[in-house]
Write a structure and sequence with these properties.
Helices cover 28% and strands 17% of the residues. By secondary structure, the chain is an alpha/beta fold. A seven-stranded mixed beta sheet has the order 3-2-1-4-5-7-6, with helices on both faces. α1 (9-15) crosses α4 (71-84). It is globular, with a radius of gyration of 18 Å.
Length: 254
């Protein structure tokens, strides 16, 4: 799918206080960046940000980072966040202090009540994850409705390919988890096979999330709402990074 170019996107994202502009500088120090010692969860391919913003609002005990590589997509998350937090994004892309926001310039600076201190965005490609996060720094990764890359020659680009699972393994804590949701059955099958090939544990899975106990407390994404409204069943799996010496297991419901 060709993304529509939005001329103001790059400038707005580069100026936004919601987007960390030098993430590699905080590798291994993200708790210091947030100014709080909390578990770190990330979403890879966060899209317009609805899922992660709701997760951050519901779980103040967790720090969240969302990665989105396309500025024209990340722009929507920046604008949504500015609107939902009560400030309006000016043309410069930087909400003013009078709007009740904080620029995150100093990790120790108190954030406004309108600026949740447990959520940041990154305009980054997932291939750079090991450059952005230190070994064991992340406890959970969310992959929501990732591009299925249906052509076989593009299989390595799928976010659940063995190559990407190796990247995730570099940054996840022992026993850390990946939660994947998709409506694409072929991608779901590929992901299960990829997990088995890579030695990950499939601790839970379903091919009909909205009619399964695994869906309790589920936070929907924009795509999930759209696809489920069309009658598409939503698939979900939870993968666990084995600790050293753990035996490989596979959930019986697959």
């Amino acid at each position: 799918m060709r993304l529509r170019n939005i001329p103001r996107a790059a400038q707005t994202v580069a100026a936004s206080p919601f987007v960390e502009q030098e993430p590699a500088a905080w590798r291994g120090r993200w708790q210091q960046r947030f100014g709080s010692e909390k578990p770190l969860h990330i979403e890879v391919g966060m899209g317009k940000g609805r899922f992660l913003m709701e997760m951050a609002a519901q779980n103040s005990q967790v720090n969240y980072i969302g990665l989105e590589r396309y500025t024209s997509v990340l722009l929507r998350a920046v604008e949504r966040r500015a609107a939902e937090e009560g400030g309006r994004e000016p043309e410069s892309g930087v909400p003013g202090k009078e709007a009740g926001t904080c620029t995150f310039g100093d990790p120790q600076e108190e954030t406004s009540s309108r600026m949740p201190g447990n959520l940041l965005f990154l305009c980054e490609d997932a291939v750079r994850l090991p450059e952005l996060f230190a070994p064991g720094e992340v406890e959970r990764i969310y992959l929501n409705f990732s591009d299925p890359w249906p052509k076989e020659r593009h299989a390595a680009r799928r976010l659940t390919s063995p190559a990407f699972l190796r990247r995730y393994e570099q940054i996840l804590a022992p026993g850390g988890t990946i939660e994947c949701k998709t409506d694409n059955q072929a991608l779901f099958d590929f992901s299960l096979a990829s997990a088995a090939e890579s030695g990950w544990q499939v601790t839970a899975s379903t091919r009909d999330l909205h009619h399964d106990a695994l869906g309790e407390g589920n936070v929907m994404t924009e795509y999930e709402e759209k696809f489920s409204a069309k009658g598409n069943p939503i698939c979900k799996m939870v993968l666990k990074r084995p600790a050293e010496g753990d035996a490989q297991t596979t959930d019986a419901s697959i």
